[in-house]
Amino acid sequence: MADEEIVDPKKYLEDSCQPKCVKPLIEYQACVKRIEGDDSGYKHCTGQYFDYISCVDKCVAPKLFGKLK
Questions:
Q1: Cβ contact 58:20 at 8 Å
Q2: Over the stretch 5-50, which tens digit does the pLDDT of each residue have?
Q3: Cα–Cα dist 58/69, whole Å
Protein backbone atom coordinates (compact mmCIF):
# COMPACT_ATOMS: atom_id res chain seq x y z
CA MET A 1 0.00 0.00 0.00
CA ALA A 2 2.91 2.37 0.62
CA ASP A 3 3.94 2.10 -3.03
CA GLU A 4 0.52 3.17 -4.34
CA GLU A 5 0.20 6.81 -5.23
CA ILE A 6 -2.82 8.45 -3.64
CA VAL A 7 -5.08 10.13 -6.18
CA ASP A 8 -7.16 13.12 -5.17
CA PRO A 9 -10.67 12.50 -6.52
CA LYS A 10 -11.64 16.18 -6.21
CA LYS A 11 -10.05 17.17 -9.54
CA TYR A 12 -11.90 14.42 -11.41
CA LEU A 13 -15.17 15.32 -9.71
CA GLU A 14 -14.67 18.99 -10.58
CA ASP A 15 -14.13 18.08 -14.22
CA SER A 16 -17.34 16.05 -14.24
CA CYS A 17 -19.31 18.87 -12.58
CA GLN A 18 -18.16 21.70 -14.83
CA PRO A 19 -20.69 20.94 -17.60
CA LYS A 20 -23.49 21.42 -15.04
CA CYS A 21 -22.28 24.98 -14.36
CA VAL A 22 -22.25 26.39 -17.88
CA LYS A 23 -24.39 29.45 -17.16
CA PRO A 24 -22.14 30.87 -14.40
CA LEU A 25 -19.07 30.08 -16.54
CA ILE A 26 -20.50 31.98 -19.52
CA GLU A 27 -21.34 34.94 -17.26
CA TYR A 28 -17.78 34.94 -15.89
CA GLN A 29 -16.23 34.74 -19.37
CA ALA A 30 -18.48 37.57 -20.59
CA CYS A 31 -17.37 39.71 -17.65
CA VAL A 32 -13.70 38.99 -18.36
CA LYS A 33 -14.19 40.02 -21.98
CA ARG A 34 -16.08 43.16 -20.94
CA ILE A 35 -13.27 44.42 -18.69
CA GLU A 36 -10.27 43.30 -20.76
CA GLY A 37 -9.18 46.84 -21.59
CA ASP A 38 -9.64 48.27 -18.09
CA ASP A 39 -6.37 49.72 -16.88
CA SER A 40 -7.83 51.42 -13.83
CA GLY A 41 -8.06 48.25 -11.76
CA TYR A 42 -11.52 49.13 -10.46
CA LYS A 43 -13.44 46.65 -12.59
CA HIS A 44 -13.33 42.98 -11.66
CA CYS A 45 -15.24 39.73 -12.10
CA THR A 46 -14.86 38.38 -8.59
CA GLY A 47 -18.60 37.92 -8.09
CA GLN A 48 -19.02 35.96 -11.31
CA TYR A 49 -15.95 33.86 -10.54
CA PHE A 50 -17.27 32.95 -7.08
CA ASP A 51 -20.70 32.12 -8.56
CA TYR A 52 -19.03 29.66 -10.93
CA ILE A 53 -16.77 28.09 -8.30
CA SER A 54 -19.69 27.81 -5.85
CA CYS A 55 -21.73 25.97 -8.47
CA VAL A 56 -18.92 23.48 -9.05
CA ASP A 57 -18.32 23.05 -5.30
CA LYS A 58 -22.02 22.39 -4.62
CA CYS A 59 -21.95 19.64 -7.23
CA VAL A 60 -18.66 18.12 -6.01
CA ALA A 61 -19.26 18.18 -2.24
CA PRO A 62 -21.83 15.36 -1.88
CA LYS A 63 -19.83 13.07 -4.17
CA LEU A 64 -16.48 13.89 -2.57
CA PHE A 65 -17.51 13.45 1.06
CA GLY A 66 -18.99 10.08 0.23
CA LYS A 67 -15.51 8.91 -0.84
CA LEU A 68 -13.62 10.16 2.21
CA LYS A 69 -12.71 7.74 4.96
A1: no
A2: 878 888 999 999 999 999 999 999 999 999 998 888 788 999 999 9
A3: 20
Supply the DSSP string of 7-51, one letter for each residue.
--HHHHHHHHHGGGGHHHHHHHHHHHHHTTT--SS----HHHHHH
How much is the pLDDT for 65? Answer: 84
Q: How far apart are CA 65 and CA 44, in angstroms?
A: 32
In single-letter form, the type of residue at position 57 comes to D
Q: State which amino acid sits at residue 42.
A: Y
- Give the helix, strand, coil percentages of the chain, each rounded to 5: 70, 0, 30
